[in-house]
Amino acid sequence: MGTDVIDRYVTDLGSRLQGSKKQVRDLITETRDSLEDATEAHLEQGLTETEARKKAVEEFGPVKEIANEYQAELAVAYGTRTLIWLAIILPLMHMAWEYGRMLLIGPWQDFGTPPPSWYLFIAKANDLTSGVASGVALVALVLGRILARKYDTKLLAKLAAAIALLAVGVVLLGNVAILVATAHLDVSRLMQSLPMSIASLISWTVIIRLGLLARRCLSCATIVG
Amino acid sequence: MKPDALRGHLDALLLATLDGKQLHGYAIIEALQQHSGGALDLPTGTVYPALRRLERAGHVTSDWSTVGGRKRRTYKLTPTGQKALHAERNAWREFTTVIDGVLGGGGKWAQT
Fold first, then answer.
1. Any stretches that span the bilayer, and where are they (chain A) (predicted)?
2. A72, B35, B93, B102: which has the highest count of C-beta atoms within 10 A?
3. Are B57 and A145 inside 8 Å of each other by CB?
4. What is the tens place of the pLDDT at every residue in B46-66?
5. CA-closest candidate to residue A161, choices A180, A178, A140, A175
6. What are the start-end ranges of the H helices in chain B?
């Protein structure tokens, strides 16, 4: 029994690709369509079914080379998607958290003694991280579109992954810093409101999820040869 | 024609093939081969990542539709792609004029 040459080629190609499931499926569907179209064209020229299918696969190119080019595109697409998420989610998450804090806890100054200057510095830096990370992601998206044809796709994929990782890293660092600083200053502030503790937990879940997306971007970009 | 010589021009060739038409992948490949008299000898699989690159640059858009009972992704030029094609054609004309001046029969290099 056997799988024919087109099935084997398509399966082999699919097994080498990593990225969004939908995008991989689209590329594989398109590949199969192209190979079937080429087979039909070769049949019309008088080749046998077996010869036509074999020739279609040969013309398509060595599977390793084609997979490499496909993977570069999948990696850029994954990087783009992650940067879009970062550009949208980070500022929204930060605004939601701050709005919730103002409603449920009120300004930090309302807690007796004003916080020391080092704490305010960390708090302000943390407030900026989401905006800066989101801005960097946005700029990277615009530049990525402008430079799409000017630079090698593999390089763009790696850059997108690096920017995504850096952006999430900065936000993570800001959140860890404010958490540690608050615990150092007055640990009870961390648990003074259950809804805010839940909001913080959601924020951490989102940051970790974005971190995993950025990590997968890098994985998609670095398996390209 | 060798694949390496073509790669640098693949984007322009694809834009030109899609000028005024909406085609699926294999139809683009067939049109490329037809217009070149079969001289364009590129692995056909390299056309698809190039089409995605053009889509990423905003020069083409794609849609899935059923053609002949099979699901196919069809591509067409965007207004930005039309402008890019215009620029590519101008650049190519300038390039061939310059090269032809040197390599063609009338240049001083030809006379030496």
1. 74-97, 117-143, 155-181, 193-212
2. A72
3. yes
4. 999 999 999 998 999 999 888
5. A140
6. 3-7, 10-17, 25-35, 47-56, 79-103, 108-111
**Would you call A73 and B52 a contact, using CB atoms and an 8 Å cutoff?**
yes
Q: Quote the CA–CA distance of A18 and A147 in Å, as a whole number.
A: 23
Complex ipTM, two decimals? 0.80
In angstroms, the CA A159 to CA A164 distance is 8
CATH code for the part of the protein at B3-105? 1.10.10.10
Which of A 70-109 lie inside 8 A of B, CB atoms? Answer: 70, 72-73, 76-77, 80
Put simply, whether A39 touches B (Cβ < 8 Å) is no
Other Cβ atoms less than 10 A from the Cβ of A187: the count is: 9
Q: Among all chains, which residue has been given the structure tokens 């792609």?
A: B81
Other beta carbons within 10 Å of A220: 26
Rg of chain B over all Cα atoms, to the nearest angstrom:
17
